[in-house]
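Hi C.,

You asked whether I'd gotten around to modeling the 653-residue construct. I have! Everything is below, sequence then structure, no commentary in between.
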Amino acid sequence: MPEPARLSVAPRAAPAMRIASLLASGTEMVCALGLRERLVGISHECDYPPEALDRPRLSRPRFDPTGRSSGEIDAAVRRAMEQYGSVYLVDADRIAAVRPDLILAQAVCEVCAVPTPSAKAAAASLDYEPTVLSLDAHDLAGVFRSIVEIGEATGVGERAQAYVAGLQRRVDLVRQRVAGRPRPRVLALEWLDPPYGPGHWVPEMIEMAGAEAVLGYPHRMSRQVNWSDLGQVNPDVLVVMPCGFGARGCLPPRRAAARRRRPRYRRGLRVCGGWLVVFQPVGTAARGRNRDPGGLAAPRCLAERVPVRARRTLAIGRVDMRLCVFCGSGLGNTGAFLEEVRAIGHLLADEGIGLVYGGARVGLMGVLADAALARGGEVIGVIPRALAQHEIAHPALTELRVVDTMHERKATMAELADGFVALPGGTGTMEELFEAWTWGQLGLHVKPCGLLNIAGYYDALLAFIDRAMAAGFLKPHHRAMLVVESDVHALLRRFASYSPPEKKWTVSTNTALLNVRRDGAAPVVEALAWVCVQGGRILGVRSRDKDMFYIPGGKRKRGESDFEALAREIKEELSVRLLPETLSLVTVVNAPAHGYPTGTTVRMICYSADHLGDLTPDSEIDEVAWLRSTDRGRCAPAAQRVLEAIHRRGWIR
């Protein structure tokens, strides 16, 4: 992939050392660039990251929006604009007290956050002349340019360029994943009463995510529309993203509230039709419209996720797979890893990947857990009793398991997880990773082990590992077992296609993935499965002389990747060709192996992929059926688990 072009901005004089941010996205950009210590004041709406929230609040709205409906807030905004010409008050005395030399404001929307004229008026009242930097993006490139402008103004231009390059790579990966897929019709609403169609970069992000924006005003202000007109749009997906409302305020009321008068926009939502997806906005409109990296999480591959409802709108009772993550109990001297680790926590939750970790509330461990929990993710902590008694256990996890010893802790984490990842940390982090990696070499598990080399932190360790291989103490295929990436998206993709090598002490030539552990535990059969869903049903097949349906697929042969093995099996069974560029991991299930000796477990790795050709079963298949969730009783145990998993996602009825 070519390196993104550098963004150019006008050079500035001495770098700013004291920053006042009058918009939430500006605060996030400052902190994303590692400048939190320079932040001397924030706006009333800033609520992220938590480490910045102790700064003085430099603004406030002219009315209290708490408890008001969408229509009531709209009316209050209009009154404030008519009477005062602005929605916000800037506290000039507080700004004078913190003495910033750089003030961040915006001119994108005068009601979304403190506008630039108000910021300049406050600056003019001071006894010195601070710089007022207006972040005026109207498209995604403009958002990236704003990050670079802040970097140049604060003397960290190179850091900002590198950060933007990473964001651009994420954009490019999204575009690659959705290329050539069906494009659902998406209607996004930025306000509800009255309804507003999306403007600025929102239509661009919808298109980027593999969908067609049926209403939008790219690079311009969002506009008010009529419910009667929206009733003719007939989208596949309705995205509700009102500024300042959480998911609970967007969705129809539950039975307990059904007797209260329902706002009129709820009737309008039903008129629009389509699958309802609610993005959890925050703060006010500025947070939704001027936010930098967080916005990239929202549109991720709509074509791939329809008709799945956004996980953030619903409580998650179970997840489809879990990763065990090892990382430091400290933050490091510079705090340079905070934003990367926080973004990883967000990603795991957004992807429905459960987090298993050491259970602490401190250091990068706490940052990771908090980030996943903030997005509604499942987080399971495992902590020794001695550490829990020292009050470092996280108090708000989905589940906290307290064990007696460190050995029991590692064994429990390994049992719960489907893979292992190490983030920056100290000797404990490295010891945990090396033990999990060694277990894999010995064939005690077939789970991927990865190392996320953020900012080159593990370069020296990787050099040592390569030295061990060169000296003959580590075999090349065991070195290749350790998945190393600097980008978490790339690491997860490699996990999805991970194929374990031959065990270290295996002498058998049997290539079937039947792993009998030396400690007497039950054998495990590893299989691959193709999840093909159409019309709310999943494809199932039944072989001759079998009484249960299973998900089509099979075992991997020596040297095959997951896709190669799955494509071969599906071609043999159903005479269709899977398209490699559309392969996507769906879930991993463990269940009793049907047709094997009692006690055998099957670990089924399930993928979705588009196909070419008509489904034509071979002579070994007696029946092909499209199954609903209610057909679980007709399926083998592993197939039952798959149906349960995709039913929870809303893929099948």
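If it helps when you're writing up: The first helix runs from residue 24 to 32.

Thanks,
B.
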